From TrEMBL, chain A:
The keyword Ribosomal protein does not apply. Belongs to the NARF family. InterPro entries: Cytosolic_Fe-S_CAF, Fe_hydrogenase, Fe_hydrogenase_lsu_C, Fe_hydrogenase_ssu. The keyword Metal-binding applies. Signal peptide: none annotated. It comes from Linnemannia exigua. Residues 190-199 have a biased composition (Low complexity). This is Iron hydrogenase small subunit domain-containing protein. Keywords: 4Fe-4S, Iron, Iron-sulfur, Metal-binding. Residues 485-542 form the Iron hydrogenase small subunit domain. Residues 189-210 are annotated as: Disordered. Pfam families: Fe_hyd_lg_C, Fe_hyd_SSU. One of its GO terms (molecular function) is 4 iron, 4 sulfur cluster binding.
TrEMBL record, chain B:
One of its GO terms (biological process) is iron-sulfur cluster assembly. The keyword GTP-binding does not apply. The lineage of its organism: Eukaryota, Fungi, Fungi incertae sedis, Mucoromycota, Mortierellomycotina. It comes from the Eukaryota. WD repeats lie at residues 10-51, 59-91, 106-147, 151-183, 195-227, 254-295, 323-361. It holds the Pfam family WD40. GO terms for cellular component: cytosolic [4Fe-4S] assembly targeting complex. This is Probable cytosolic iron-sulfur protein assembly protein 1.
């Protein structure tokens, strides 16, 4: 009896379509012996009996939430069953447990609940319920606190940190790339050879690998296009790719492992908030990380995957930096579950100080007005890194990508692919060439260019969803029937319009709290603790080619 | 009585032949196989079509079976779709030895690529795969291909893609029993129509020379002919989606093939349809506009009431060759694309051979 490399989900009573069994490959360590018998003992444990009679106990194969969600090989509702482990149900049960803990005066089972809301979620509610983002923030604060939540925060705050770190990481990489000869330093004098200026992009980018010849004779040897000829070192890898989108990260880990060295190591705003809430906020309240339950409200489901990564799990406290991610639509469901469907009659509360992006309104004198980094609704990474790098590396000030000041902004091919170029004023020599690539087809093109060494970019903001985070899979749908009354494009424009409605613009480095955080919490800018709390790593998923015979056609 | 006579049997492939395809302008045939190679065949003597030689073997480009091969419309490049999930683009090296080399490899599909097709203008390439998606690529200079769109509306393995003979309109056939029609609105590709009717996998499709009809071959042992009805058509067929034509089934050929039909080819020269499959037989059909008085035809009022065209096209079986590849399945049939040798038909089968046939009227 041979061990099959594929596993079948057998005791689920969900329908698995006949052409797809679970293809999650089980790693079987190959031993020298070929034939072995399988024995089952009374307790139901399996043993492999080898030819010399010795028995080895076999471990049951398991599939974890992560395996399943990242694979998307089968399309059963079992997947959604597993996803409900991270949903508002979990939040309710923690809140209920808290109530019991308070009643029975048992602080050991109490967990302080913190909810961090993303600005995209705020915009989504603002568009659907005709409120301003500030009203939404105040009402969500009221709503969550009425359920027993302790603090409500805004991930715009942690995004300031993410942007700062990404900018610094980029400048660092750029300088190392120049030092190692990975990049050619641009000619700042303005007397650039015409050929260089005309070539613009691809001529400047020279990666370590020898330039691929136009005609490659591959007869006789199978084309080995899997790995680039020379290993890429992250610290100087160009282009640098944004890391905030978990959909992109999971796809790259699963299918394009060679892209991982290019991806920025800075954590996403969600995870930085996770680190801050568990390790800084917690210590301020004298709580251990496992005594806090951190919920993030996000525009998509892939953020649930991100929260459950093992890199964001503390072995010491047996707790995750983000315990639960719920989407905008799940929060809307909570409204109806709590019998509160009309947001216009919600109460309002001031936003919590601490990790919120609010200041006293300089114009109206109101206590609180929203403030945050400028840039588009996917976080503004491209915008920030461009103006930061322009200043830090080349001393060029006043670059504003939003308003196309100091840079040339071009839509390439389709609206989900933009190029932003910084040139030497006067000569047109390209200093920095950035791009934003959203959606699967544009990611394909980007990946192909990077793989063949033909990418002309220094930094690319990569997002898995067309139109970016504002159009995430968990965002609210317009009122009425499924995009008939309001076509999708118009709806996205409406939500996008609400994103910065009433939000004052402030550069991350001008956020006074950040400087304090770096000093008090991280001990400085480039300290080991800063790297531990603000950076992460990626892991390619082993591609075990499925035995075609085991797959049902 | 028209019949097919075998001109030549080409041996050389070491595994089943999946696809045979003619060069767009010259009497050159490309075939691909489970032996991971493509072979190029040419008649040794233009006057004597019974003698063919294999002039090139394209190997080393793919790690698994090559499932489909297609010439670019200008005949200068070959695309190969392989089970290794990649599509290879090959060019002939004119200055050196005249060998073909792989100048580009398109990646992206998650698993086996089943079919590839060039648009008539040569500007677009479509690929489809068991991963249920259809990809559209744009050909750029320097052998770079840019992915324009990834279309994921089929619910199962996509078996074949075929372009309209003149327009940038794509059809795809799938294991989900449907055929989908794709168009673009300024580089945003979408599914303009879905053709239901087959009761099992649709293995192959081909456009009529006019482009207004499609013939499809299915595992349900039938061929179907579909006709395009634009908005405001004289038959009164309703076109529900704003400005989009609909495709309706106007003929079904059943009771002829006795097993799955794997391949179908609609001759651009004389309009005959050739089909072949698991019953080891190549069959030829002629499709004609139905005479109004034909029996079983719905009256115009009945048709309008049903929004169905009824029988508009009649098919007649014209010829057949049993055991064309012995007891082996036939995987591919292809008519010569122009009138020069319009009577030639190529076929490839599980026996690893390629056969050239001539239609004798």
């Amino acid at each position: 009896m041979a061990f099959s490399g594929a596993l079948t989900l057998s005791d689920l009573n969900d329908f698995i379509s006949p052409s797809q069994a679970c293809i999650k490959p089980v790693e079987v360590a190959k031993t020298a012996e070929t034939q072995g018998a399988i024995k089952v003992d009374n307790s139901g444990s399996y043993y492999e009996v080898s030819q010399d009679g010795s028995e080895t106990k076999l471990e049951t194969a398991t599939i974890s939430l992560n395996d399943c969600l990242a694979c998307s090989g089968c399309i059963t509702s079992a997947e959604s069953v597993l996803v409900t482990l991270q949903s508002q149900e979990e939040l309710y049960s923690i809140l209920k447990q808290n109530k019991i803990a308070i009643e029975t005066n048992d602080p050991s089972t109490h967990r302080t609940v913190v909810v961090s809301i993303s600005p995209q979620t705020r915009a989504s509610f603002a568009a659907k319920y005709q409120q301003t983002p500030l009203q939404v923030a105040r009402k969500l604060t009221w709503f969550f606190k009425s359920l027993g939540v302790h603090s409500v925060f805004d991930t715009s705050f942690s995004r300031d940190l993410a942007l700062l770190e990404t900018g610094r990481e980029f400048v660092d990489r750029y300088r190392k790339a120049i030092a190692k000869g990975v990049l050619k330093p641009p000619n700042m004098n303005g007397s650039a050879a015409p050929a260089d200026a005309a070539a613009g992009g691809s001529g400047d980018m020279e990666v370590d690998t020898p330039k691929p010849k136009k005609r490659i004779i591959r007869r006789g040897a199978a084309a080995t296009t899997d790995e680039p000829a020379v290993a890429v070192e992250t610290e100087s890898a160009m282009p640098m790719l944004a890391s905030a989108c978990p959909g992109w990260i999971c796809y790259a880990e699963k299918t394009h492992g060679y892209m991982l060295p290019y991806i920025s190591e800075t954590k996403s705003p969600q995870q930085i908030m996770g680190s801050m809430v568990k390790n800084h906020f917690g210590s301020q309240l004298n709580l251990n990380p496992d005594q806090i339950y951190h919920v993030c409200v996000m525009p998509c489901y892939d953020k649930k995957l991100e929260a459950s990564r093992s890199d964001f799990y503390s072995d010491l406290y047996k707790t995750r930096d983000v315990d639960c991610v719920i989407t905008s639509t799940e929060v809307e469901k909570m409204f109806s579950e709590q019998g509160q469907t009309d947001m216009s009659v919600f109460g309002e509360l001031d936003l919590d100080l601490g990790y919120n992006s609010v200041i006293k309104d300089p114009n109206t004198g109101a206590d609180q007005v929203l403030i945050g980094a400028s840039g588009n609704a996917s976080g503004g990474f491209l915008e920030y890194v461009m103006q930061y790098a322009a200043r830090e590396i080349f001393g060029i000030d006043g670059v504003d990508v939003d308003r196309a000041v100091g840079v040339e902004v071009k839509t390439v091919r389709n609206s989900d692919f933009r190029e932003v170029t910084l040139e030497v004023p006067g000569s047109g020599e390209v200093l920095l060439k950035f791009a934003a690539a959203y959606g699967f087809r544009n990611i394909q093109n980007l990946v192909r260019k990077v793989k063949t060494g033909k990418s002309p970019y220094h930094f690319v903001e990569v997002m898995a969803c067309p139109s970016g985070c504002i159009n995430g899979g968990g965002q609210l749908k317009p009122p009425g029937d499924n995009f008939v009354a309001v076509p999708l494009k118009d709806w996205i424009a409406q939500v996008d319009g609400q994103y910065r409605n009433g939000v004052l613009a402030r550069k991350p480095e001008e956020n006074p709290v950040l400087e304090q955080l770096y000093r008090e919490w991280l001990g400085g800018i480039d300290t080991p603790k800063a790297r531990e709390q603000l950076r992460t790593g990626y892991h390619a998923v082993e591609q075990n080619l499925v035995n075609p015979l085991a797959v049902k056609w | 009585m028209p019949h097919l006579e075998q001109l030549a049997e080409l041996v050389g492939h070491e595994d089943r032949v999946w696809c045979a395809t003619w060069h767009p302008t010259k009497p050159i045939l490309a075939t691909c196989s489970g032996d991971k190679t493509v072979r190029i065949w040419q008649a040794t003597n233009a006057q004597d079509p019974s003698k063919w030689q294999c002039t090139n073997v394209l190997e080393g480009g793919h790690k698994r079976t090559i499932r489909s091969v297609a010439w670019s419309p200008d005949g200068r490049q070959l695309a190969t779709g392989s089970f290794d999930a990649t599509t290879g683009i090959w060019e002939r090296d004119e200055d050196e030895s005249g060998d073909y080399e792989c100048v580009a490899t398109l990646e992206g599909h998650e698993n086996e690529t089943k079919s590839i097709a060039w648009s008539k203008s040569g500007a677009l390439l479509a690929t489809c795969s068991r991963d249920k998606s259809v990809w559209i690529w744009e050909v750029e200079e320097d052998n770079d291909f840019e992915c324009l769109s990834v279309l994921q509306e089929h619910t199962q393995d996509v078996k074949m893609v075929a372009w309209h003979p003149t327009e940038e309109l794509l059809a795809s056939a799938s294991y989900d029993d449907t055929i989908k029609i794709w168009k673009d609105d300024d580089d945003d590709w979408y599914c303009s129509d879905t053709l239901h009717g087959h009761e099992s996998t649709v293995w192959a499709i081909d456009f009529a020379p006019s482009g207004d009809e499609i013939v499809s071959a299915s595992a349900d042992q039938s061929l179907k002919i579909w006709k395009r009805f634009p908005p405001g058509n004289p038959f009164g067929i309703v076109t529900p989606r704003r400005g989009e034509p609909v495709w309706k089934c106007v003929a079904t050929v059943s009771g002829q093939h006795e097993r799955c039909i794997y391949s179908v080819s609609w001759s651009k020269a004389h309009g005959l349809i050739a089909s072949a499959g698991a019953d080891n037989t190549i069959r030829l059909f002629e499709a004609t506009e139905a005479r109004p008085e034909a029996e079983g035809r719905l009256t115009p009022e009945q048709q309008r009431a049903m929004n169905e065209p009824g029988v508009l096209v009649e098919t007649v079986a014209v010829a057949q060759v049993k055991e064309a590849h012995g007891t082996s399945d036939i995987n591919s049939v292809a008519w010569y694309p122009s009138e020069t040798h319009g009577d030639w038909l190529a076929s490839g089968g599980d026996d690893g051979s390629v056969r050239i046939w001539r239609l004798v009227q």
